[in-house]
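Dear all,

This email documents one entry for the complex benchmark we are building for the journal club exercise. For each entry we list the sequence lines for every component of the assembly. Then comes the predicted three-dimensional structure of the complex as a token string, followed by one or two observations. Please use this as the template for your own entries, and keep the labels exactly as they appear.
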Amino acid sequence: MTNDNPLKNTRIEFHILQSFPVTCLNRDDVGAPKTAVVGDTTRARVSSQCWKRQVRLTMREFGGKFGIRTKFISRLIEDACLNEGATEEQAKACAQKIGHVFIKEQVKGNVGKKKKTVDEEIADEDGVIENDQDNDTLIFLSPKEIQLITLALKETGFDPNALIKQKDQKKQAKELADLLRSKLELKVDDVMQTDALDIALFGRMVAKAASMNVEAAASFSHAISTHKISNEVEFFTALDDRPDLSDKPGSAHMGSLEFNSATYYRYISLDLGQLNATLKGIALPEAIEAFTKALFIAIPSARQTTQSGASPWEFAKIFVRKGQRLQVPFETAIRAESLENGGFLKPSIEALRNYLITKEEQFGSLFGKKAEYTFGDGEKFSIDDLVAALKQQVAEISK
Amino acid sequence: MTDQYLLMWLEAPLQSWGHDSKFGRRDTLNFPTKSGVFGMLCCALGAGGEQRELLEELADLNMQVFSFIPAKREREPLLRDFHMVGSGYNDREPWENLLIPKTSEGKKAVGGGTKLTYRYYLQDAHFAVILHVAEEVLVERLANALQNPVWDLYLGRKNCAPTDFIYRGLFAMEEGAQNHAFSIAQEKKLIEDFRVLDGPYQEQGEVLTLNDIPIQFGQNKQYRDRFVTVIKKYESDE
């Protein structure tokens, strides 16, 4: 990261408290709600990957530039070439060449054999089992990257072999990646840049050309309940609509599902320095807006048809800080206060506030706080207000 | 003479320090590895990529680890997180389709392509790590970086955000660092349950071979072996 990145070392931290009634937001392999032991008590847990995925999907509703994606890169390149004046034949040839660059070549000796699934291990010529991660051909290209490749092809008169000179497939991927990096005017040590917001926020790995990897700016912790939970069992029956046709009385199907109700503490940090470097300073406010809104709305989709959870943020502390990032442990499980005093939420809010205040005091100047916002404590402060405030804060720091 | 002993405090609800996991089952040791800690230092420095030189400087530095648990409790068992990749996406939607793993030819995999992975975490763990860095310039760089890290710091996996400050000071003597570690533990009402020394000391405890000294990070990570000695602390009956 260059030294003149004004947002280096700076991050937005979201400390969120969100309560859900009867739900099973995230299940393990036997269908039970996930848990973790913190401070010697069992807590409800929603894994980081679960909520992150939901935010990623929700972000697409908020506009902004996302990678244009089709099933095969080739079709995209084909359309783009046609747009830039290539003949159909040229466009097809270019599309095929580029599309093939990122697909793993068939291992020698496997030609004609049954296609292997992604879970099977593939041995190369030396009998060494390759990590099956290498077989993934997930590739996200941003609109700009498609455009750059197409224009580069145009310069060669749509002759794909003039653009990609390497014969070896491994080297082809690197050649294409180097081409993109040089078109983006990146030096060797610069991070890969993209204009696609979701790639910048959530990252990208390209197995065949790791110089195109983009490090995610957003980081999610596992959401953990602030209090002890015990999973409860929902016993259900499914009744046949025409019991008169059955000769057996009673329900057609009986089963049980585990669920719980919990107040979750969620910690999400957004590394502004990384985001700034990846987006090259363009559309930074847009990214922050889309991300924050998606973060507010997204709820994991597990069991939403029968145990629907539609609960928004109850309370949140949002910091813009330098220094080391920090989450609240809730090591001592929160106990519900009396009925008048609001269950688990109120004491959780107090514990959250106190922990953050204590840490800020203990570390003085090293806490590095630039701004602090509170959501849901009775003051008029909507999510739009938060977005506006964050955008402004980031703009000020960037000057 | 600069103080050479760097004290770090690693605490989070979930931590994970792997050393030899393959494929879909990502295990964790009971204590932080050199590769994990050095990775965290690189994160703080903003040192991405291979970093062969920096890693060579760090490789043979002495690293002591102290593990603490709350008094009167047993060590928690490992948490096994069931983590699926590529599940629940609509394969007819072009964007969502890209998130589903494919075969090596880029075609749809038999059975859908979803991967099942199991990732293990330490629960409720607290560690003090003392790194002996004799080189003056380096130790100051590390100390500053930990207080003002370039990238987000995490304990093993990116989702393991720490719950307390990691950097706890530089000390002239090893004993000073150890005492401070124990005073932090005492404040949090924790007691030592084991320590891990760098090197093979058969008479003192169990010796393990770990492949956790990083030679190179970046795309092609390389490691070499070292010995560590795990010394359990038994509570006296008095």
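Observations: The longest helix of chain B spans residues 174-187. The CA atoms of residues 61 and 132 of chain B lie 6 Å apart.
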